Amino acid sequence: MDQLLAMRVFTKVVDTGSFNKAAEQLNIPRSTVSKLVQDLENHLTIKLLHRTTRQLSITPEGKEYYGYAVRIIEELDFAKQAVLGRRYQPSGVLHIEAPSLLAEHWLISKLPDFHRQFPDIKLRLTISDRIAHLISENVDCALRIGQITDESLIARPLMTLDFVNCASSAYLAHFGTPQTLADLSLHQIVGYQNDNGKVKSLIFVLNDEQWQAPAPHFACNKGTGLIAMLKAGLGIGQTFRLLVQDELASGELVEVLPQYCHPTMLLSLVYPANRHKNARLAVFIDWLMALSRDMQSS
């Protein structure tokens, strides 16, 4: 058995979801595709795919092997291109995970620039506010906010995220603008609720002294929902300034109590320490770090 060919065929079957489509794209008979996958399973003594007359699905072992196979194939292709002296253009699938707030209000709007530079990379973006296990879920990298305590991950700091206290102009026109923290007791508060149901209070800091706002009247477990609540005029809340710059500039949202700030938080890109940093991931990291530097310097 040509193990490398079998690996290429297996990954193509997974990518296309079909033996027939894989055979068409590889320009080989379907029977050859089926035999190579079966030979690979026999060689590994594991089941890579579940096959029925109507459905094809990957097994947990197959999913893990697929991740390794893709990286091996890419490295071999990279080596070939390097030896031949040709310019190597990264290609293949890059799986990214990001919190909803950052994905929908920042990252997605920047991705066309990445695609223009690296058109052969296929991006798969998972939007989730839970902390995924990158290796078992076959995620190449993830955006994380706050301190990274997982020692199995390599963290690349991107930027410091500042908070802004704000409310809609319509809300302030109706309820007035608070001038002191004591005034917040007269206002509706919009807060964040984590997946465990715990509602976080708004935090205000001045000269190393910290205060908490009254319990929120409204709370949401998604950052995007929190911003929508603020824009809908439900009250005063806190979010990352980076994500509401347009709303602040247009006057749709208005900053309040600017002298009191929530402590800043660090935005990082993380990836598994024991996973080889492939060419796709390397260029994505470089691109994202350059983007972050440009944003901080502007």
TrEMBL record:
Q: Which residues form the HTH lysR-type domain?
A: 1-59
* Entry-linked PANTHER family: HTH-TYPE TRANSCRIPTIONAL REGULATOR (PTHR30537), LYSR FAMILY TRANSCRIPTIONAL REGULATOR (PTHR30537:SF72)
The record, for InterPro entries, names: LysR-type_TF_proteobact-type (IPR058163), LysR_HTH_N (IPR000847), LysR_subst-bd (IPR005119), WH-like_DNA-bd_sf (IPR036388), WH_DNA-bd_sf (IPR036390)
- What name does UniProt use for this protein? LysR family transcriptional regulator
Organism superkingdom: Bacteria
Q: Which GO terms describe its biological process?
A: DNA-templated transcription
The terms under GO molecular function for this entry are: DNA-binding transcription factor activity; sequence-specific DNA binding
> Its family?
Belongs to the LysR transcriptional regulatory family.
